[in-house]
Amino acid sequence: MWRNLNSFFRHPPSFSVGLAFALMSLLFGTWITRIPDIQLQAGLSEGELGLALLGMPIGAVIIMLFLGRIISRWGTGKVTFYSALAYTLAMILPAFAFNLWSLSAILVVIGLSAGSMDVAMNAAAAQIEKRDRRSIMSTCHAFFSFGGMFGAGLASLFAGWGLPVLHHLLLMALSMLVLSFYLRAPWLQIKDQGGGSHHWTWPRKSLMVLAIIGFCVLLSEGAIADWSAVYLKNTLQGSSFISGLGFAGFSMTMAWGRLYGDMLIPKWGGKKLVVGGGLLASLALVATLVWGNAAAAIVGFTLVGLGFSCIVPIIFSAAANVPGVSAGGGIAAIASMGYIGFMVGPPTIGFLAEAYGLQVGLGFVAIMALLIGLLGLRMPTKT
């Protein structure tokens, strides 16, 4: 692992794209931690918040319908840079939300820029892999997890100090704008080497098990991202200092697992890691709900991150090797189902929380994690 990281840091194009992943998730971790404050500011119930949270994935899915043509016309590097600027500026807007519809519209705008940056930076990493014949994708995703961890942890500290939401978001946006302009030159030097389309495709029968796993895992990740802080602060009555620590721990173990994933997957096999990871995540969530205190919740969310860490890389790799399906087509099919899961997860939890309490909503996530483990048994042994 350390040799790979040393090579990554010493290769400027790789490191610059890794920082794009970290920038995006650092801002996302900031937003996640301030959701309870923005919910209170806008006067939203749990169900209304769940509905508003639907805006971000809707915006992301909309922009993905057009990104193939946008990237082919502008190039991966330019789209990465300009979408990073748009995403950074858009992340200031939640501070001005005053009701359900204003927050929903703001999150659609954020989703448009976030979806564009997500696809562009992943495409940039793929272009570097192809051009320089080096593997960097897993490390870039580890940077994403570390960024979310530090963003949530720093945001918890600022929230505990009583820093107003607007001042917090402005401070983070200014810092990230400076970083984006610093990285502008290496991003713009990324040249497209050809590749597949970014358009949605519906998964074929041979990919359906992998697609359902992708749906479940991204549904669960999105639910924990959007609701862990709310659960810690509102349900468990935790302080503002600890409200973001559940997501921070989740991101930390997600990153740690991804850094070691390239070593563990060949040794243990993808099937065992998917089954074991799903079961670990399910048991951790059940234990969190049973004990019902902030310390147990932080530990539980941290273990969920460890369980989920390698699942997406494993199913993407498996999808790329399904007989009769191209690698790009297989991965696109799984990604499309994953985004649908990410889109419906947070509002589903919100509606369940509104009707039965947030414990029941997180119990639904535990069921999804258990389903991942059971579906993993249907994967080929050599995955």
Structure at a glance:
By secondary structure, the protein is mostly helical.
Core attributes:
single chain; 383 residues; mainly alpha; Growth Hormone, Chain: A; 2 domains
What does the model show?
The structure is a single chain. The protein is mainly alpha-helical and 383 residues long. The protein has 2 domains: 1-194, Growth Hormone, Chain: A; 200-383, MFS general substrate transporter like domains (Growth Hormone, Chain: A), CATH 1.20.1250.20. 80% of the residues lie in helices and 0% in strands. It has 17 helices and no strands. The protein has helices at 2-9, 12-42, 46-53, 55-64, 67-74, 76-90, 100-132, 137-160, 165-182, 184-188, 208-235, 245-268, 270-291, 294-308, 311-319, 327-356, 358-376. α4 (55-64) packs antiparallel against α16 and α6 (76-90) runs antiparallel to α7 (100-132). The longest helix has 33 residues, at 100-132. The protein is globular and about 50 Å long. The model has no long low-confidence stretch (mean pLDDT 84).
